[in-house]
Each structure stands twice: as structure tokens, then as C-alpha cells.
Amino acid sequence: MGQHIFEIIIMLLGAALLGFLIGWFLRKDKISELQTYIAALEDKNNRLQSDLNENERLLIDCQTEKRKAESEKKEIERLLIDCEGKLTLSDIELAKKENQNTAKPVSFASSGANEKNETPDDLTKIEGIGPKIASILSEAGYKTFKKLSEAVPETIKRILLDKGGKRYSMHDPGTWPEQAKLAADGEWSKLEKLQDELKGGKIQ
């Protein structure tokens, strides 16, 4: 009986020891596993921290580039405003020059208008010029004695042929400018004396 109790006690102690050893080994594996997991977390945390530092550096670089771009944009806008100002001044100067250049043509146009508005003379007072020829000359711009006095006989001849036809080839305007000059100067007595020597505008 006593021997059986002793054997039971021995078996219980062995089981307890075996359980302790198994628990110890299991606990040791668990601790090792936890330590490995913690190490992995720390490594991951270090990587995340490194990535965060890199992103912060990139963000600072981007902000620096943004400020630089904004500064360059302002400088470009300033230059653009200067250019627009210079272009405006150039346009004003160009407009002034154009006005100066067009001043004379306007004056000439005004002069032409004065010529159109001037009172025509009675060209039939010139020996050799009848109402029809006077009308042709007036349409050609020779409305006054002064204008006719400045004409070249050959030019008058060509005008008559162009406007009136071949039937006006018989007319000789050789003395018409001379007669017109006397009429324009009011030398009526001299004109009458000259016309006494003419027949149809020609010297007899």
C-alpha cells in the first residue's frame, strides 16, 4: 500500500514537472514570436517614418518651386504690362505720324474742293470756242481762263478728239491759252485786238 502511494506521488511529480517543462517551452516560443512581431513592427514603423520624412522634404521642395514660379509669374506680368504700355505709346506716336502724313492730302482734297467750287468763266469769249467746246473743256477741268491759259495746245487738241470725236479735228487751239491769259489778266482791249487778227481762233 505504501509503495503504491509512493509510486502515485512520483507519477504526479513527473507529470507536474513535464507540464512545467512543456509550459516553459511553449512560453519561450510565444515570447520569441512576440519579439519577432515587435521587431517587424518597429522595422515597418522606421520605414514609414523614413517615407514620411521623404514626403515632407518633397513637400518643402514643391512649396519652394511654387514660390519661385509665382515670383517668375509676377515678373512676367510686370514685363507684359511694360510691353503693353510701350505698345500703346508706339500706337499713339504712329497715329500722330499718320495724322501728320495725311494732313497734306487733306489739304489737297480741300484745294480740289475749292477748285470745284470756283466760279467758271465764259470760255466762249475765246475766239474759236463755242458752247459745245466750252462744255468739253469744262468737263476736262478747264473751267476758268486761268486754267485754260496754263494748258498746252496739244493737250487741248487731244481732249477735243477724245470727247468730241474726229469732227473736232478742224479746230486749232493754238492761240487759246494766249487768249485765256489776256482774259484772266483782264486785258480785254489786248484780247480784242488779238482776236481781230484771228479767224476761228487761227491767225489769218
Q: Which strand order spans the largest sheet, edge to edge or round the barrel?
A: 1-2
- The helicity comes to over 70%
Terminal residue distance:
195 Å
The quaternary organization reads as: single chain
Q: Label the overall shape.
A: rod-shaped
Tally of separate domains? 2
Helix and strand sequence:
HHHHHHEE
Mean pLDDT: 82
Q: What kind of sheet is the major sheet?
A: 2 strands, antiparallel
Unreliable parts:
102-113
Structural class label: mainly alpha
Task: Say how many strands there are.
Answer: 2
Cα-based radius of gyration, to the nearest Å: 61 Å
> What portion of residues belong to β-strands?
under 5%
Number of DSSP helical runs: 6
Structure description:
By secondary structure, the chain is mainly α. It has 2 domains: 51-117; 121-203. 78% of the residues lie in helices and 2% in strands. The chain contains 6 helices and 2 strands. It has helices at 2-117, 131-139, 145-149, 153-164, 176-184, 188-196, and strands spanning 198-199, 202-203. Strands 1-2 form a two-stranded antiparallel sheet. Strand 1 (198-199) and strand 2 (202-203) form a beta hairpin. The N and C termini lie far apart (195 Å).
